[in-house]
Amino acid sequence: MKIQLKDNSILHYDEAIRVGQLAQDISPGLGRAALGAVVNDEIKDLRYMIVDDAEVRIITFKDDLGKRVFWHSASHLLAQAVKRLYPEVKLAIGPAINNGFYYDFDKDEPFSHDDLLDIEGEMKKIVQEKLDIEYFELARKDAIQLMSSQGEDYKLELINDLPEDSVISFYKQGEFVDLCAGPHINNTKELKAFKLQSVAGAYWRGDEKNKMLTRIYGIAFPKQKELKEHLEHIEEAKKRDHRKLGKELDLFTIFDEGPGFPVFFNKGIILKDLLINYWKQVHKKHNYVEVSTPIIMNRSLWETSGHWDYYKENMYTTVIDDEDFAIKPMNCPGGMLAYKNKKHSYKDLPIRMAELGLVHRHEMKGALHGLMRVRSFTQDDAHIFMRREQVKDEIIGVMELIEEVYQKFDFKYHLELSTRPEKRIGDEGDWDLAEAALKEAMEEKDVDYVLNEGDGAFYGPKIDYHLEDSLGRTWQCGTIQLDFQLPIRFDLDYVDSDNSLKRPIMLHRVVYGSIERFLGILIEHFGGAFPSWLAPVQVKILPVSSAFNKYAETLVEELEGSDIRVEADYRDERIGYKIREAGLMKIPYLMIVGEKEENKGTVSLRKHGETKNYELSIKDFLETEINNMYRRL
RNA sequence: GCUCCUAUAGCUCAGCUGGCAGAGCGCUUCACUCGUAAUGAAGAGGCCAGCGGUUCGAAUCCGCUUAGGAGCUCCA
């Protein structure tokens, strides 16, 4: 007997029986429950069946939901093993995440590396025991009794927070029972390949006022081969780490003498300058004007802006002539002064006032991360002052600018919209207007976004652009934030057509976010092998022996005359050695020159990542390669 | 800031249960004048992150500090 499902998948007899049986057990109140993992003979792929109300769907490990189900079950496997080895440990929560799963435990002594190996061993045993993973429900009273009998205080807290009428569901495998909404795979035997990766601290319910629990992270796959590939992929990704490449490629470093304060070397500065030049070009095109405001300003400015009261622990302060001063953590107050410097007409708006501003913030030391999170960075800021009816178009304009820049670098990114938080200022009408403007802008641009309800700044809602690093961690770079607070605090105005004074609406926005963070992303994105327009050294000339150094010098001059960033390696080293070294520095173009080339007035061109050689003249090189390169600009 | 882990030559790392500080790369010098990813030889280079403790004796064990890493929290 076979059953045909909605998506035309075929189930075999015993699987179908199981579907029928389990479907009966599912309570109507349950959103969905996993019915089990089966191996489809034809597709040879691990599959699960999910009942979504009445609809039966089949998902596989390839689906995002399939992965989450699988990893969630792996987290239960982890918890079961931990409870067997350490019965005194209390369980907190154990969800699937984007790349694996974790489980939070409350344990007096932290887990050591060896403990992880023991736990993995116990997990393997449980897999071999082939325990069915069973679903059941309890009335609130019984659920509380069960969890308190097991001393699971955290689970009790979770149950108590569930709404009165909600179904309280559990999953059971062997002796192990866990409060859980599911779904899960149906038997521990499917969890064939897993690895516990790390131990970390994490606050209970993500609140730093709560107790810090011990979190174990892990990853699991249906097949050993997939696990191996995944772990290899991580190792490869680590080679692209911008901190490692920053050192290897001589771009930047961070000395112990200045934690969080990066030091850029010449090649890093070239990259920064290229980013800045491109930025200026794009902003000019989009009709921005540029200003520059001081790094240090007095206390009264920061009191007006509110930073002195609300942001003080992140600010570096000093005393000059007995007066308090602060080093700016943000550029906006300076921008407000620049706007206020003269009266504005409604005809002047929108004013798009850009500033590459160096800001300093006293970030917590544990938050620092290479160039991604530093204490001193350059924001590619701009403040747009506009009339009410210009808001949506200005937002769209900024979105288009950000897209233009990110596309140039082929970046993968996603958008997040954060709306009004509980603690906020300003009247509801302004919030309505602002949120509507952001939403409309995104709808008009037809972009997907993640909605973070209640996650906006206290002064206004925002759109954030998140970019991925080599390990898939995302970093907020671009942001568009509406702000009602500062125009009021600084009493900004413009003269409207009826000669009345009106308050402009302001938005803050950054495209790169910070030059430093963006550069970090950029380094990891290209793995240090920058496209030729960005490479700090574009061409390296390698004479085969010192007899050809003279010829190399003439080539250097010729290329420099065409504004190519060029170096030559005049050392008495073998050509193979020079090529290897230049290759490790990921220089896009190597020009090898010896007797043959000198006689013909050519070079032997070798492109990064290729072993082929092209013999051509500098003139041809400039006309083909370099023209191509700048055509992409 | 919190939890766990880490710190040995410029870089990457070895150094077992405490007993004279090691390698490769890089650097310097010499020889080779070289044809597409490492020429050979010699040499210099270390208060084993810092401070304290245990010990006859500490790179090694313990504590504190500093810095780094994985997360959490917070943020561009």
How would you briefly describe this protein structure?
With 633 residues, the chain is of the alpha+beta class.
Describe what you observe in this structure.
The protein is built from 19 helices and 33 strands. It is α+β, with helices and mostly antiparallel strands. The chain has an 8-stranded mixed beta sheet with strand order 16-20-21-28-25-24-22-23, with helices on both faces. Strands 6, 7, 8, 12 and 13 form a 5-stranded antiparallel beta sheet that branches. Strands 30-29-31-32-33 form a 5-stranded mixed beta sheet, sandwiched between helices. Helix 2 crosses helix 3 (113-128) and helix 7 (242-248) packs across helix 15. The relative contact order is 0.07. The protein binds one RNA strand of 76 nucleotides through strand 12, strand 13, helix 7, strand 21 and strand 25.
Class based on secondary structure composition and strand pairing: alpha+beta
Outline? globular
Q: Could you tell me the number of beta strands?
A: 33
Distance between the termini: 63 Å
State the helicity in percent bands.
25-40%
Total helical segments: 19
Mean of all residue-level pLDDT scores: 87
Which stretches of 5+ consecutive residues score pLDDT under 50? 1-14, 20-47, 50-55
Strand content: 25-35%
Strand order of the largest sheet: 16-20-21-28-25-24-22-23
The major beta sheet can be summarized as: 8 strands, mixed
Radius of gyration: 30 Å
